[in-house]
Write a structure and sequence with these properties.
membrane; transmembrane helix; transmembrane; EamA-like transporter family protein
């Protein structure tokens, strides 16, 4: 691991770290901080039912924030061996979101999260392949 700044790593490597940085920041800010601080507002914005019980949404927000920190750190320290793991995790998350919608357990708004996960995973995957 080198101590060069992320910007230099990106210029010297490829855009995979950019995709992981973007996804990490998204996870920390939108579902992470968003659900921890304003779960009702965020859930209502996406049309996700909640029944007025917000402690679970806050815990999910905490977990999303932690995942975001890991994604951001993987990019920051250019842990290339973990890039494929992040891609697989994001595709898996998208599949679970789609399955929840198909089964009628979640409203159509959940597909937006699936699209974000698939787009980010694809970005990282293609960037990694271009760097070879």
């Amino acid at each position: 691991m080198s101590n060069e700044p992320l910007g230099e790593k990106v210029r010297n490597m490829n855009s995979a770290p950019i995709s992981l940085t973007a996804f990490g920041l998204y996870m920390m800010l939108i579902p992470g901080v968003g659900l921890m601080i304003a779960p009702e507002r965020l859930l209502d914005l996406f049309g996700l039912s909640h029944g007025g019980h917000f402690w679970m949404a806050r815990v999910i927000g905490l977990l999303a924030f932690i995942i975001g920190v890991f994604q951001f750190s993987i990019a920051r320290y250019a842990l290339e061996r973990l890039y494929p793991v992040t891609v697989a995790q994001r595709y898996f998350a998208a599949l679970v979101f789609i399955a929840l919608w198909v089964k009628g357990e979640a409203q159509v708004a959940i597909l937006l999260f699936a699209v974000v996960d698939m787009a980010g995973a694809t970005w990282t995957l293609l960037a990694k392949k271009r760097s070879r």
